Amino acid sequence: MKKPKIALVSLGHYIYFQQFSDLKAELMQKGEAFKTYLDPARCDVVDAGYIDCVEDAFQAVQNLKKEDVDLLFILLSTYLPSAVCAPFARYLDIPQVLVGIQPLEHLDYARTTTYRQLVNDDICAMPEIAGVYERLGRSVPPCIVASSSQRAYLQKQVDEWVSAAAAMAGFKYETFGYLGHTYEGMYDMHTDPTAFTAAFGAHVKMLEMCELARLSEEVSDAEICAQIEEIKNIFQICDPSHDPLTDFVQDDDLVYSARQTVALKKLVEQNTLTALAYYYKSEPQNPYEQLAANLIIGNTLLTSSGIPLAGEADLKTAAAMLIMKNLGGGGSFAEIHPFDVCDDVVLIGHDGPHNITIAEGRPRLRKLKKYHGKSGSGIGVEFSLKAGPVTLLSINVDRFGKFRMIAAEGESIAGDIPQTGNTNTRVTFHCPVCDFLARWCEAGPTHHLALGVGHHMGTLRKFARISGIELIEVK
Question: What whole-number distance in Å separates Cα of residue 47 and Cα of residue 43?
Fold first, then answer.
């Protein structure tokens, strides 16, 4: 995962330091303490220093512009005039968070001095500064307010902001591939690439099937053998199930799927893709028909390695999968399947692509004589997500052309799934399943979604603040 660059600046008021000789040194320690919440394994930290006057704030802003940071924490160490913070609001077009961490849980009122109150005046300027952001025509930053003793709360808040920044940084200067075209008639799938770039910042690169076909023809026997070995080590190869569409996986099936897997990996590598949306429907017996139908193993391995692939050329869900991956949820391509009123669950899955890193047990391969609703035949991947908390994230476009996220939290429940060569996860919610499904549909999602492990709504709220993309929560 690409690490976001997180900046920290601490603000104070120089006049106090002319009056209280030891105050500045004590307040500067707050910045050092805050840095302990920033894990260098998850982000690169830029410390802009301690700023106590407008002139130094101007210089700090110029330095931060050169760093190209993804998120700025502004630590208020005591009262300060809003003019010291205004340059960050006016000149830095990046997400910012105001932080006020009071050292004491409460003052010792009978013995508190002016000095000690100044040390604990971390939120005194916060209303003034927030109001100035509004007056400068900027979004009022979200605020973190806590005492230093609330370490677990502070760590959770900082971690969620870093994760949200990582999710947004995952699109920055990156390229999404678009191969083929959307599934005919799926109006919710169509996406304007320019609007996508405006919302997420990533470039959308149009790819051609002939490039993939050329790469497929160039795959060597040695590469095929190595790929088959990887497939056999990862997947359990299953016999036909009760479904008459299933069949035995033959050696020729593995050879052909392995060839397309190698070709797909090369397509992604040679085009330096961060994600890919693809779908192709050819004329019957066209060479591209079977090629396009045998990408499920390849797109599953790529998705599981951190490069999301979305079927039916669903560019928006490729974005949702990347967000979910960068939030730590994995993110598997999915849609709503039949529900179960007896067990109060709904099956959520798809025929590919998938993320086997969040699978329950060893993923399975089944040969399918035909794909329902698609041309060709080939090998499908079948599994459920791990039992426990899950998050659903769908991205759609509203009537005004603006992207919006629809999300919900639920629980993955262990249990039987259809043996049809598709993923299916039994998901329950904090309300009757039929009520939830009605609310989910009324929110206007796409019919696809990214299904990930863990509850991530708190971080998605922060991502919505950073990205400016509306979030609708379905409960």
Answer: 12
DSSP state of 359: B
Vertex 214: Cα angle to 313 and 303 (nearest 5)? 40
Q: Output Rg (C-alpha) for the chain, integer angstroms.
A: 26
With vertex at residue 143, the alpha carbon angle to CA 139 and CA 145, rounded to the nearest 5 degrees, is: 165
* Tokens linked to 255: 């050879």
Residue in the block written with tokens 């929110």: 443
CB 390 within 8 Å of CB 346: no
d(CA 84, CA 1): 35
In a 10 Å sphere around its CB, with 0-12 CB exposed, 13-18 middle and 19+ buried, how is residue 108 labelled? exposed
> Residue 96 is inside which H or E element, if any?
strand 96-102
Q: Residue 289 — very low, low, confident or very high, per pLDDT cuts 50/70/90?
A: confident
Residue type, 218: E
Record the tokens describing residue 207, joined without a space: 């790819």
Q: Buried (b) or exposed (e) across 270-297, using 16+ Cβ within 10 A?
A: eeebbbbbbbbbbeeeeebbbbbbbbbb
Q: Mapped to the 3 state alphabet, what secondary structure does 152-210 carry?
A: HHHHHHHHHHHHHHHHHHCCCCCEEEEEECCCCCCHHHCCCHHHHHHHHCCEEEEECHH
- Give the residue-averaged pLDDT of 323-331: 95
Question: Could you read off the pLDDT of 257-277 as tens digits, one per residue?
Answer: 999 999 999 999 999 999 999
Give bridge partners of residue 470 from the DSSP assignment: 404
